[in-house]
Task: structure prediction
Amino acid sequence: VGEIAPSTSPSTCLYGIKNPFEIKDLIFKYQEEYAEAPYLKRIAKTVEEKPGAIKGMRYCPFCGSKLEVEGARFCPSCGKEVLKA
Result:
């Protein structure tokens, strides 16, 4: 169970996060900006339930597509700008 698929688990593309609970803080900080992102509530829930489960995952928070390019600024699938922490 090394990789989590976007269809079964939420993720985001926040780079440089060392502590999984920092993601939850960032979600609340940028919640207005990401109001249309359907994955935010599920990300926060995943952080609470399994803090290590999201480590190293890189998916678009808007459409759930996998971000394969390191440091990508825009999602190749939906074209929206992704947050870079």
Notes: The helical segments are 20-29, 40-49. Residues 33 and 39 are 13 Å apart (CA to CA). The two ends are 26 Å apart (CA to CA).
